[in-house]
Amino acid sequence: MRPEDFAQQIELAEWEHNQEKAIRAAPSRPSAETCAECGDAIPEDRRLAEIGCTRCVECQAQHEYEQNNRGRR
Ligand SMILES: [Zn+2]
Known about the structure:
mainly alpha; 3 helices; elongated
């Protein structure tokens, strides 16, 4: 292997390593574009504010309300 090829290999390996790190640092799932409950489009500012969200504001509130009330009775 020529030295310049070797240097390129190292560069590539470093690049791949950084890509892997970036992927690992990123949230495991992206925000949904539409609500999983009602199918309405989720506003982009909500999707960015809450990475990984799957529901619109109303459905999320409803979901949290139900979760909070579970086991309280
Ligand atoms: Zn919804």
